[in-house]
């Protein structure tokens, strides 16, 4: 009797597949159609519909504190190691639930309101123009290394009044640290990520202590004043906060400028339109965030039974303790929300409804800043040069949580 192996189940969510990592959008479409509530191999429930993602992110019945609330597969050494690491230090605002989340968020939200951020515009324009003057002389620019990384990095450094001499090292630590957040991270990635934290934290502590001795009117001095005041912000919380602000300021906006510029170069009609029409300046940045956002997914833990509709109208119940992977990039390409989602349309009327900055209480604190930085960088670049052309194939970093290219060489005239 011949033996036939049963067909292997198709893995609809496979971050280890290089094709998936290179271009996840077709995979998201298939998931959304065939299994919008999908249990992945590692036990996460992958959500790809806009409505499900949005509801979960805004729900009061979910937690962002995986360490405290998520069921853990004790046989998975990577998951166990991650949990133990999270137990090591204070949680950052991103991993806290109310009331701690509310307390920490209140301390900094004033510094990040759209109005406060708008005050940074002239400084950001000046930084961008310096870079573009240099590019004009040479007729070329390496967009990531010369503009997309250094501008957001300098802005967050100035906000916190941090020195910038060790930019390259800091960038390296940040990249290594975020590589440890990828679902494909190996034990050696986690080793490297811990080593990076062990270098970054003492560096920051040194600066924090200097600032305590000589406070200024920067954001870090403001946080230190709160910490000195009593028990609203502990020393550990302060450090986690500064690490998060710093890393968020490095690793995300760079990819909005990079992915956004690449999308425009691949849609030259849209690029031309934007160059000539300043009334698009706000909606266009939102459309770039929707089209290919830097953060592709985030997580929540179900705290009570949650009901979702499956592909065939059936009810799927997720029990408390299960981790929900809300795929922001998939929500942003859901045709039920966005007409012709795979088309870049800078005048899309509902572009601002994207979930690239998440939603609910953890909605990105730096959203206004990121939009200002990317808007200034891209509009000044495309209005300064009539001719912008790719000078080589862009290379996507091999990542799925934070998505971006590592090099984007351009010829400009
Ligand atoms: C295009 C650039 C950016 C993107 C796409 C982005 C995306 C996100 C997302 C998706 C979250 C929420 C994750 C969740 O719900 O689990 C978040 C939170 C956060 N982001 Fe951003 N971010 C960007 C830039 C920035 C910048 C420039 C800063 C600060 C300087 C920043 C600071 C933060 C902080 C502090 C949080 C935590 C907020 C909270 O938990 O209440 N982000 N960001």
How would you characterize the largest beta sheet?
5 strands, mixed
- Please identify the structural class as seen in this structure: alpha+beta
Share of residues in helices: 40-55%
Which architecture per CATH? Orthogonal Bundle
**Shape designation:** globular
Quote the CATH topology.
Answer: Cytochrome p450
Report Rg: 22 Å
**Amino- and carboxy-terminal Cα gap:** 71 Å
User: What ligand species are in this complex?
Assistant: protoporphyrin IX containing FE
Characterise the protein shown here:
The protein is α+β, with helices and mostly antiparallel strands. The chain has one domain: Cytochrome p450, CATH 1.10.630.10. The protein contains 19 helices and twelve strands. The protein has a five-stranded mixed sheet with strand order 1-2-8-5-3, sandwiched between helices. It has a three-stranded antiparallel sheet with strand order 4-12-9. A two-stranded antiparallel ribbon has the order 6-7. The longest helix has 27 residues. It is globular and about 60 Å long. The model has no long low-confidence stretch (mean pLDDT 91). Bound molecules: protoporphyrin IX containing FE. The site of protoporphyrin IX containing FE (HEM) has 25 residues, from α14, α15 and α19.
């Amino acid at each position: 009797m011949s033996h036939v192996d049963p067909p292997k189940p198709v893995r609809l969510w496979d971050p280890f597949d290089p094709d998936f990592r290179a271009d996840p959008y077709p995979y998201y479409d298939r998931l959304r159609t065939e299994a919008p509530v999908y249990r992945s191999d590692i036990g996460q429930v992958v959500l790809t519909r806009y409505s499900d993602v949005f509801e979960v992110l805004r729900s009061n019945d979910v937690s962002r504190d995986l360490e405290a609330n998520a069921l853990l597969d004790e046989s998975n050494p990577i998951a166990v190691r991650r949990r133990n690491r999270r137990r090591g230090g204070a949680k950052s605002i991103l991993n806290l639930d109310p009331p701690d989340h509310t307390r920490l968020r209140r301390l900094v939200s004033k510094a990040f309101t759209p109005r406060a951020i708008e005050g940074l515009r002239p400084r950001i324009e000046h930084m961008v123009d310096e870079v573009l003057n240099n590019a004009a002389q040479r007729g070329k620019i390496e967009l990531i290394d010369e503009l997309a990384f250094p501008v957001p990095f300098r802005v967050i450094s100035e906000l916190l009044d941090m020195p910038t001499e060790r930019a390259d090292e800091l960038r390296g630590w940040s990249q290594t640290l975020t590589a440890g957040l990828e679902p494909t991270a190996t034990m050696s990635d986690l080793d490297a990520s811990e080593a990076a934290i062990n270098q970054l934290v003492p560096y920051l502590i040194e600066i924090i202590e200097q600032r305590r001795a000589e406070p200024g009117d920067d954001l870090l001095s403001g946080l230190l004043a709160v910490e000195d005041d009593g028990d609203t912000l502990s020393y550990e919380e302060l450090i986690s906060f500064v690490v998060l602000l710093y890393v968020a300021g490095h690793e995300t906006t760079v990819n909005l400028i990079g992915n956004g510029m690449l999308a425009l170069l691949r849609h030259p009609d849209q690029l031309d339109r934007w160059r000539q029409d300043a009334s698009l300046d706000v909606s266009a940045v939102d459309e770039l965030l929707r089209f290919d956002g830097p953060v592709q997914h985030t997580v929540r833990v179900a705290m009570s039974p949650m009901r979702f509709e499956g592909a065939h109208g059936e009810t799927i119940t997720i029990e408390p303790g299960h981790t929900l992977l809300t795929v922001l990039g998939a929500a942003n390409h859901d045709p039920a929300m966005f007409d012709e989602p795979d088309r870049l349309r800078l005048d899309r009327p509902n572009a601002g409804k994207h979930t690239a900055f998440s939603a609910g209480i953890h909605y990105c604190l730096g959203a206004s800043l990121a939009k200002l930085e990317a808007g200034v960088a891209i509009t000044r670049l495309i209005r300064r040069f009539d001719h912008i052309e790719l000078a080589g194939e862009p290379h996507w970093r091999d990542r799925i949580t934070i998505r971006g290219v590592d090099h984007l060489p351009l010829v400009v005239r």
